[in-house]
């Protein structure tokens, strides 16, 4: 990709991006606390250790490169604690995130529930030095699932019904489920359920799915866009107490790297991305065994992201 060669070109790029951003809301990427980084600086995009996060990471990096911004990907960093620490120490500059879970990470007492409410609260909860860009319509939430056999046998279709079963409930989920508001603490406080965690660190992937099918766990935390839910006929339990918040895709960035050009590119991508896109890309990963790089490139070839 051709990078800006002089200050005139860089200034022109920033000016153009500023025009693009004029109607994008109240966030000003050039405010006094924010982004003075030029588009010629490399942006390192980190990801969590599951397929969808890696696909999104390559989407972000490739879109930036397509627009003349040097970008690299550092995939599979781990859980939220690990990649946010990497953001803070400068090991990475950006990471794809989910609005509700990120809000609860920064503010465990948050009461927002709807998509817009969660995003608004998140923009206020993000700590100094970090920022979130525009949220996408695309959403992928944690969902708690049981097999159809379990649902039919115990007449369970809602989280509210689990505690009344009076049987031990094991939940297959990532290790952080033990402390997150949407995990064991939420099941206890909102539904009166004393569940036991079986930690499975694959982001609701094939190991988690197998544990549910084999009966090693009764409930599994699987992302809502995972094809395995429909493929295996799992029953996603209703969440009447809204323990799991709206989970729109959102980029989390080190504020110093959120230049006008970077912001314009990623906001444009976010404005196009849909939940159906996530389902299709996850299917390409799990069923077709395509790499995250290939899936991201194919999507971008169909959806031109130009800012």
From TrEMBL:
Residues 1-22 form the signal peptide. Pfam families: OpuAC (PF04069). It comes from the Bacteria. Residues 41-302 form the ABC-type glycine betaine transport system substrate-binding domain. It comes from Tsukamurella soli. Transmembrane segments: none annotated. Keywords: Signal. The lineage of its organism: Bacteria, Bacillati, Actinomycetota, Actinomycetes, Mycobacteriales. The keyword Signal applies. This is ABC transporter substrate-binding protein.
């Amino acid at each position: 990709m051709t990078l800006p060669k002089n200050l005139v070109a860089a200034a022109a790029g920033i000016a153009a991006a500023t025009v693009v951003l004029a109607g994008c809301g109240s966030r000003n990427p050039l405010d006094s606390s924010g982004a003075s980084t030029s588009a010629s600086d490399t942006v390192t995009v980190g990801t969590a250790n599951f397929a969808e996060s890696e696909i999104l990471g390559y989407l972000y990096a490739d879109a930036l490169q397509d627009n003349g911004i040097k970008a690299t990907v550092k995939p599979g960093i781990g859980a939220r604690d690990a990649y946010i620490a990497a953001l803070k120490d400068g090991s990475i500059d950006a990471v794809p995130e989910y609005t509700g879970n990120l809000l609860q990470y920064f503010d465990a007492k948050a009461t927002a529930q709807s998509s817009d409410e969660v995003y608004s609260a998140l923009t206020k909860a993000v700590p100094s030095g970090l920022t979130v860009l525009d949220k996408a319509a695309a959403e992928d939430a944690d969902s708690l699932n049981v097999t159809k056999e379990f649902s039919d046998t115990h007449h369970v279709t809602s989280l509210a019904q689990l505690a009344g079963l009076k049987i031990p409930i094991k939940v297959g989920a990532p290790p952080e489920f033990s402390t997150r508001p949407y995990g064991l603490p939420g099941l206890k406080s909102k539904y009166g359920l004393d569940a036991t965690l079986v930690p499975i660190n694959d982001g609701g992937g094939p190991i988690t799915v197998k544990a549910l099918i084999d009966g090693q766990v009764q409930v599994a935390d699987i992302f809502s866009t995972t094809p395995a839910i429909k493929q295996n006929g799992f029953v996603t339990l209703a969440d009447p107490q809204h323990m799991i918040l709206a989970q729109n895709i959102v980029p989390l960035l080190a504020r110093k790297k959120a230049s006008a050009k970077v912001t314009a590119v990623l906001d444009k991508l976010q404005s196009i991305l849909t939940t159906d896109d996530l389902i299709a890309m996850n299917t390409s990963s799990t069923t077709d065994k395509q790499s995250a790089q290939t899936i991201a490139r194919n999507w971008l070839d169909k959806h031109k992201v130009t800012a």
